[in-house]
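Hello forum,

I keep getting stuck at the same step: I have a sequence, I want structure tokens, and every attempt I make locally crashes halfway through. Rather than fight my setup again tonight, could one of you with a working pipeline run this one for me? It's a single chain of 421 residues.
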Amino acid sequence: MDFLALLEESLAAIQPTRGDIVTGTVLSVDSMGLLVDVGMKRDGVVPRNDLEKLGDEVDFSIGDEIPVMIIRPEDKEGNMIVSVAQAKQNEDWLHAETMMNEEEIWDSEVADANRGGLIVPFGNLRGFIPASHVTDLPRGLSEEERKTHLESLIGQPMSAKVIEVNRRRRRLVLSQREAQREMRDQLKDELLSELKEGEVRTGRVSGLRDFGAFVDLGGADGLIHISELAWHRVRHPREVLSVGDEIDVYVLRLDAEGRRIGLSLKRLQPNPWSQVDEIYHVGQVVEGVISRVTQFGAFVSLDPGIEALLHVSQINSPPPEDPTILLHDGQTINARIISIESHRQRLGLSIRDVENELPLDEAAGFGPDDETDEQVIAADSAVAEGPELAAEAGIESGANAVDTVESETLESVTEEEETAE
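Reply #2:
Ran it on my machine without issues. Output:
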């Protein structure tokens, strides 16, 4: 016998194995399913229940070329059982792996929900979005409340990123949070290319933190540092803004490399320090409210929205060791202006010779008498320079006190933005 013929017969006799995907031609379509020519000794049979898994996609005609997966090379009746549905699922697995590797976003609708998260269709597969990867899920919900909230999302459009593909365990995990972060980053890049420092934009307050307020400028957030909320001292942004407020903001600085947008609210308001020279003069006695007491003195709020420094040496002679014993936040006092430097936004006060009801006695925490004169002389010479004495201690006066930490705070904005979601 011709050895070439034997070799060809041997190759033709190679049996297909379970899981192989081959391309076949539809030979017949009936109520039982499909008969497919897969180029082997036996034709492949696609059961009707396999076609039903495809739903509306069941629309085959004789002569169509379709991919099928071999399920059983030979059943009890000698038929080769193949699956169109599983062949299509294999394409979806490959597609999911590609999307994960290329970090692409998948758009779909929520098909179902349970206590653990959401179910979304991914071609012929079912993807799972864990509850921890669902954005805007309220915190502190009970299991039933969380399930109810998740069920309310059924039928809603959903964009998500593929974060895990495991064919063996048939796990396809997606994240709405990652997709929104990706889209927000893209929007921020576009916004950074459009924005210019010094321009005014309208936005909506999207979040408040101890260090400032985030403002949505149209899909991307900028930060108003707490020192840029108002000319007067602000203890917390909630004193000035609320989430949802629509406001105009001044674009203060842009950091394309760090992808940060610095905004200001106070730059759109009149600078109260521009009026100080017209309103006040050295020697004038004024009424103010203590806004903060420190070891080196106190800050006093004055009209029209400025803060002056009352140094510890100007509280009494001799100076108290602990100003907090004599003064407290919110206390109204009368004080004399001893220095004005409006161009540096500094104004110095004294209450040593102004009548105030203060518990000024030795029990209140004054130092020993033998140190008093030396302390007072040193303090008086320092006060002649205004609040520089405080600066020497590493602290600035008024609203400028927080400016020194603004750059450090901005370095952590990226992490806070992720948490703010």
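The longest strand covers residues 21-30. If your local run keeps crashing, start a new thread with the error log.
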